[in-house]
Amino acid sequence: MTTATETTSAAAGPHPDGPDDLLALADRVAGWARSGEEVEVYVARGDETEIRAYDGEVESLTSATSAGIGVRVVVDHKLGFAWAGSLHESVLAETLDEARDNATFATPDDHVQLAAPDGVGAVPFDLWDEALSSIPTSQKVALALALEAQARGADPRIRQVSSADYGDTSVEVALVSTTGIRSSNRKTQGFISVGVIAGDGDASQTGGGFDTARGFDGLDPDKATADAVGRAVRMLGATKGPSGRSVVVFDRRAASTLLSVISTALSGEAVAKGRSFFAGRIGEQVGDTGLTLVDDPTNPLAYGAASYDAEGLACRRNELIVAGLLKGFLYDTVAGSRAGVASTGSAVRGGFAGTPGPGCRALALTPGPEGFDEDGVLAAVGGGLFVQSMTGVHSGVNPISGDFSVGAEGLMIRDGKLAEPVREITVASTLQRILHSLVAVGADVEWLPGIAAGQTLAVGDMQISGV
Description:
Elements (H helix, E strand, L loop, with lengths): L19 H11 L6 E18 L2 E19 L2 E7 L4 H16 L32 H16 L5 E20 L4 E19 L2 E11 L7 H13 L5 E2 L3 E7 L1 H13 L3 H5 L20 E3 L22 E5 L2 E2 L6 H7 L7 E2 L8 E2 L4 E3 L11 H5 L2 E8 L1 H4 L6 E12 L2 E14 H6 L1 E4 L15 E9 L2
Parallel strand pairs: 7-17, 8-15
Antiparallel strand pairs: 1-2, 1-4, 2-3, 4-5, 5-6, 8-19, 9-10, 9-14, 10-11, 12-13, 15-16, 16-17, 17-19, 18-19
């Protein structure tokens, strides 16, 4: 038996009064600003639970709380930043003083500034499940154990359940600045995931499935199990696929990964640094006329939904590519200043220990009329390759040049239906060509963990290297 462990960091879990007390704290620290300086105070706290079941027992259990403050100070166009993993009274003034001191060593930059209210109203919605904090740990453990047992018994070809996990997070954030920003966000998220190994003779294949929800009650073990088992079992007997040029259909997870890579090239900061294949192409046709790509954190269904961005400006719907035409990029305040445009309300940050930068939160393609199945995208393409997973994305895809070459596994498509499984193949093209070669965009939008939605994508004329 593996012993379960429990860890706790800086004490400060979700507060019964919500983020209002965090706003009051941020107000107080911002009120210590001196004449001639701009101060931004970002405070956050949260809870996190992670449980892993293995072989009918709890392999690990982690329960942690965290809280902290990040302070940015701008003096004479010089930026100083400091953070602390505590909201204790004794560290608040120290953190502000450290940020001031760091500013004295910074290089002046005319574009360095804090966000100021821009008149855009925030879209209000509630991403908080109050019931999550009342779910006892024993019930969360029971769900992880039941998930593992369900996956193990779902199909006689399942030889092992490699992992069965439960997790949840609750995060509250407040931001106040001397430039007039005052905002707060709060969000809860639960997830379950399971990995299985299926076998047939000497052959074995792996598969994973998951589900997410705002709280505990919305999690669906049946969905996670069916996804994991289906992905593993249908790959049994896989052989190396054929080589040639073909239509490639990316499943929702693979398509989400593809969009996430493309999103890095849509950052105004990346464009300014010459790290985007979209640089200098505003107004040009960069994709098929059926391609419309939007980042919309105001959609409450999106995993990255938020009312306010990481600088306290209202999040908003940003159209990036419309009917194949490149319309614009995503900016925070500083990147926008460098480009001579306003922020798009797209600042993101990794928490109180980081500083903001522009990025996507909820990227999705406008869906087409067809779903994935044999009456939808598969029927539309007729034949080709269905990719259910990719490897080597970080090393094989370059958002600067657009080069795209990844390892893949999946199934052949014949007569509009999934056929024999294939593995150890390489799929190659360029991101530029992929955007111009869309055959179909699925209607099967699923908001997956991360910054991009999952939806089936069919791309024509890709190079397949197999046997």
